[in-house]
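hey team, just a heads up i'm posting the complex here instead of the shared drive bc the drive is being weird again. everything in one block, sequence lines first with there labels, then the predicted structure for the whole assembly after. its two chains so it's a bit long, scroll down
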Amino acid sequence: MSIETAPSAGATALDPTAAVATRRDIQHRLLMTLGPILAALIIAGCILLAVGVDPLAYYGFVLEKGLLSPLGIQQTLTRMAPLLFLAAGLIVAFRAGMWNLGGDGQFLLGAVTAAASAPVFVQIMPAWLALVCSFLIAMVVAMIWSLVPALLRAYQGVNEIITTLMMTFLGTSLANVLVKLVFRDPGTTVPQTRTLPVEDRLPRLFETTITSGLLLGLAAIIIVHLVMTRTAFGLKLRIVGANPRAAIHSGLGVPKLTIAVFAISAGLAGLAGAVDILGVQGNVRADWNPAYGLAVIPVVFLARMNGFAAIGFVFLLSVLSIGGESAARRLGVPNHFTLVLVSIVLIVLALAEYIDHRYNQSRRV
Amino acid sequence: MSIASSLSVDKRDIVALEGVTKRFPGVVANDGVDLAIRPGEVHVLLGENGAGKSTLIGMLSGLQQPDEGRILVDGEPTAITSPRHALALGIGTVFQHMMLVPTLTVAENLLLGGPWWQRPKTEELEARVAEITRTLGITVRLHAKVSELSLGEQQQVEILRAMVRNTRLLILDESTSMLTPKGIEELGALMRRLVGQGLAIVFITHKLKEAAAFGDRISVLKLGRKVGEIPPERFRALGEQAIISEIVELMFGKRKDDPEAAERPVRVIHAEAAPLLQVHDLAVAPTDEAPCLSSISFDIRPGEIFGIAGIDGNGQKQLAEALAGQRATMGGSVRLEGAPIEALSVGERRERGLRYLTDDRLGEGTVGTFPVSINFFLKQVGAAPFWRKGVEQRAEIDKRAAQIVREYDVRTPSLKTPVARLSGGNIQKVLLARELAEGAKVVIFNKPTYGLDLANTLASRQRIRDTAARGLAVLLISTDLEELLSMCDRIAVISNGSLVGTVENADDARTKVGRLMIGLAA
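-- predicted structure starts here --
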């Protein structure tokens, strides 16, 4: 029996059951996502209780400061901009089966070069062109930084998890050195780069404090999603990720694709750094490292490397981190508790997935 | 069949297999195997790689469960659920690769697996080992580190470990593959002493000489099926040479009323036609698991099926990969329609009309998690009309995929089904459709019917014959001599990385190829 026996008849006959099935599927998905998040909130609440903090007050603060208050939501949306770029970069890498864990190094080098170049460029060219050039420079520098792991992986098969992590240590230190020694603003006593005047930064949206970098980030992640799912290039990367031997068998140039993946992934991380500097910070202070790159990794996994789902989860992460920062100040909970919360969510989700899988298996038998 | 299996149930059997079948995604590893294992006998399991020996051992040692059929232990149907359970039943296995911890001493290795809350009973072990080694006439240095022992000594330790655990059935999986000739001889003597004490031994090998020298009973496996057995009475009656020739007959011979037997249609190949594929002096460097290829030369004319016969692992895969461009060559030339292609990439060779149907259907032939429809076009990603300016044209892909599914009778729930969910035969149809798509001139088939059931085997063979009938040149690599004899015009035999002879497929080809395969002159 081939599937073409009666396509239209089969389709119409199957439609109601198929609709029920998809609805049940969506319900199941929602349950499998929201249930564990709820469970994780409860577990994290227990931890808060253990350290003597009222979890309801904490969550209340997080919601209040991250989501409900006008200033909070604007900060949350602004924070999303670099996170979206980083998530986009990770989606490319993970879908191609490559573990670019060097996002932080690439991010910081992008940030530093953008911070160093933008104040110079604005003096010699129109502001918009200066921003474009700074973005490009940040992207190229991050790409170059990823070249070592990329070449090692492509031609020597060296595990990129190790190399990108090592390069991120070097990258954060190099960024620091650059800030303190090369790009240091002589006009200040604290070691930092020259500050980009507020009027030359990325414009803010309407009458708010939300940076227009948010739109760039959204565009980046949606483009990445479409490229990965709808184009030949994206399919090639997914083949490399899903079955590298099949990629070789199919005649794909795996080494070149590997280098392309690292370049795109790192380039997006560099843009993330640039968008944070050119849109929000205006300069890079010495020892500044927000470690967004590591925080975004679990988010991309929660989204199953789907761009649209990643937007939702990045929003959640932003709410948690903005709300968590102010809750930390009020309640004395360490800032890093946001990360604790996110990791509990991830572990509970993974457990739920495992249990669901086992349940399905046992039911099939 | 049922009479045979009921006959084989014997009170004396320690373990008996009845109609055991094991399937893996895409492959039937064991197909209705019956086996009787008796104390005091060395039961040799003989077969090529992929004949299903390892799967059979996996089931006996509790690593895998049969899909059909049953295993009797002491006459009782028993499900051997885990390696621990197998040990408790008295079934001990010495695997092909050493399973000792090299940094620990022999005694420590022997004590592994004891209850964790007890102090290891070293004195008890020493007494027991002394007793066992005395009766077997071997010496084992209990306090030497395993890494200091030779491979033969390590093997003795593994056998000793099985004996310490009161093993009644000892399984030796390809145990001679890493031993020196002297080590092999010693192992043979040890096996005789063990069966002398009433132990049952299953000895797995693909070397005919060892089978004849050490066995009491031989079962021959071929592509998952048991194709014959030489019982002890007959074994003793025959001399070594007679046994070997009987085994060769079983392994390569023609069975009566064979459903696969098909009259080879007489094809007219124009001898004067220019060869489509010319391979001259091709050489490939050796790797860890494969021999080097040296001075491989052959021509294939349009409409011709050229077979490569040989025991698995003699360089067949390397040859196919070198021709397809997946493996670097060290020298030689490959010409397609007279034009050299040895410097071209995999994709360029495909474009010129060279197609390679791999034997590793899920490992490299397809992306298991991707839908059936995409797998049809895995080697054409980016090509019109399925992609325009790099953008996927889903309607075009689905339309063409539906057409192929109909044409090749691929049985799939839908075009979106992940290809790994299909049966082996249907995955093979996906590969056939992909490689035989328009533009094919030379097609390399590597073990095209490996692990398929009969219906799909016959269908695949017909596809290959049709391919040749269309005027394409076909290189058919197979370990199934029957298959080659029923399809090829000429058969070359590969051994240790070189072609040791080429035989016209005439009446006496079977004997000639069979002799070449076991290293005798044709």
